[in-house]
């Protein structure tokens, strides 16, 4: 049984000319990527993830924070895109203009075939120098710790300062170009599909609000209520890996649905 509103949302998608797909942690939940708000286990049990994801935490204990991100990168490398990610790639192929905007730091949209998602909160695969911002090489595949442990970050090849994860920490600004491109896409779109985000973390949560203010139709996929309920024309209470393929089937037929 698909959530009520699926047929209506599929029709809106089929008619869309400019689509924004805006995703959060719920998009990758069914790929087994631990979400940010999940309780931490093992070495990090005693830490609040929100306290580890700050510039202050990295300055105080770089090996603790680098080790945590390397463990997360390993978990993402072992995960696979789910049918929801693949459905988003089908939408991008079908709608004349699609922009995928994600708050996720994993690479599952790319691996499912969405060419260049906008990463509002950076990426686990873009380490850089903590002092001079020089991009640093991603450690080799398989070098991530399989389980939690502290790990001394590598040194910048240019200035020798410790390398940091290429993600946006609490208290830091979003990458300017990425945020501007996302706002611009939201401003221009006729449909915005928001998937698996709590809509609580600003300024990213502005994106669906911008689309709604400009007269775009906002469709939400989330099993829970969120503050974005208020701006949604259609609210699909279900999980991404199931609802998104159903939307593709409803919009373009069974043959279009991802495997
Ligand atoms: N399908 C769809 N939605 C889901 C699923 C699923 N299978 N499972 C969970 N969700 C929903 C939850 O109901 C919740 O509303 O995904 C949302 C996840 O919310 P958050 O954990 O707050 O994730 P997100 O909105 O991406 O957080 C934004 O905050 O944690 C920081 O920087 C981090 O990018 C992240 C940002």
Q: So how many helices?
A: 10
> Strand percentage, roughly?
15-25%
Largest sheet: 6 strands, parallel
Spatial gap, N to C terminus: 19 Å
Please bin the fraction of helical residues. Answer: 25-40%
Strand order of the largest sheet: 3-2-1-6-7-8
- The dominant shape is elongated
Whole-angstrom Rg = 19 Å
Average pLDDT taken over every residue: 94
Q: Secondary-structure element sequence?
A: HEHHHHHEHEEEHEHEEH
Please state the structural category. Answer: alpha/beta
Characterize this entry briefly.
With 259 residues, this protein is an alpha/beta fold.
Describe the overall structure.
There is one protein chain. The mean pLDDT is 94. The protein is α/β, with parallel strands linked by helices and 259 residues long. The strands form 2 sheets. The protein has a 6-stranded parallel β-sheet with strand order 3-2-1-6-7-8, sandwiched between helices. It is elongated and about 55 Å long. The protein has helices spanning 6-15, 25-29, 49-52, 55-60, 62-78, 83-94, 108-111, 176-188, 206-213, 240-252, and strands at residues 18-23, 97-102, 118-119, 122-129, 163-167, 191-195, 217-221, 234-236. Helix 1 crosses helix 10 (240-252) and helix 8 (176-188) packs parallel to helix 9 (206-213). Adenosine-5-diphosphoribose binds at residues 24-26, 29-30, 35-37, 103, 121, 196-198, 200-201, 221-224, 226, 239-240.
Layout of secondary structure:
Elements: H1 6-15, E1 18-23, H2 25-29, H3 49-52, H4 55-60, H5 62-78, H6 83-94, E2 97-102, H7 108-111, E3 118-119, E4 122-129, E5 163-167, H8 176-188, E6 191-195, H9 206-213, E7 217-221, E8 234-236, H10 240-252
Parallel strand pairs: 1-2, 1-6, 2-3, 6-7, 7-8
Antiparallel strand pairs: 4-5
Helix pairs in contact: 1-10, 6-10, 8-9
Bound molecules: adenosine-5-diphosphoribose.
Adenosine-5-diphosphoribose binds next to helix 2.
């Amino acid at each position: 049984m698909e959530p009520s509103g699926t047929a209506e949302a599929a029709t809106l998608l089929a008619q869309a000319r400019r689509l924004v797909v805006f995703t959060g942690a719920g998009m990758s939940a069914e790929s087994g990527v631990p979400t940010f708000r999940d309780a931490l286990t093992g070495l990090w049990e005693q830490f609040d993830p929100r306290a580890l994801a700050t510039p202050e935490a990295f300055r105080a204990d770089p090996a603790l924070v680098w080790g945590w991100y390397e463990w997360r990168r390993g978990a993402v490398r072992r995960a696979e895109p789910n049918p929801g990610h693949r459905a988003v790639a089908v939408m991008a192929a079908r709608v004349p203009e699609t922009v995928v905007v994600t708050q996720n730091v994993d690479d599952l949209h790319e691996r499912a075939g969405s060419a260049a998602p906008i990463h509002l909160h950076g990426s686990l695969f873009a380490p850089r120098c903590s002092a001079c911002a020089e991009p640093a090489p991603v450690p080799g595949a398989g070098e991530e710790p399989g389980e939690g442990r502290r790990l001394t970050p590598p040194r910048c090849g240019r200035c020798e300062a410790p390398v940091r994860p290429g993600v946006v920490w609490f208290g830091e600004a979003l990458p300017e170009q990425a945020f501007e491109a996302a706002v611009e896409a939201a401003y221009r779109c006729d449909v915005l599909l928001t998937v698996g985000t709590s809509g609580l973390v600003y300024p990213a949560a502005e994106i669906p609000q911008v689309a709604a203010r400009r007269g775009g139709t906002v469709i939400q996929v989330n099993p829970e209520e969120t503050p974005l309920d208020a701006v949604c024309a259609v609210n699909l209470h279900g999980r991404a890996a199931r609802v998104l393929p159903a939307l593709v089937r409803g919009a373009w037929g069974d043959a279009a649905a991802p495997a």
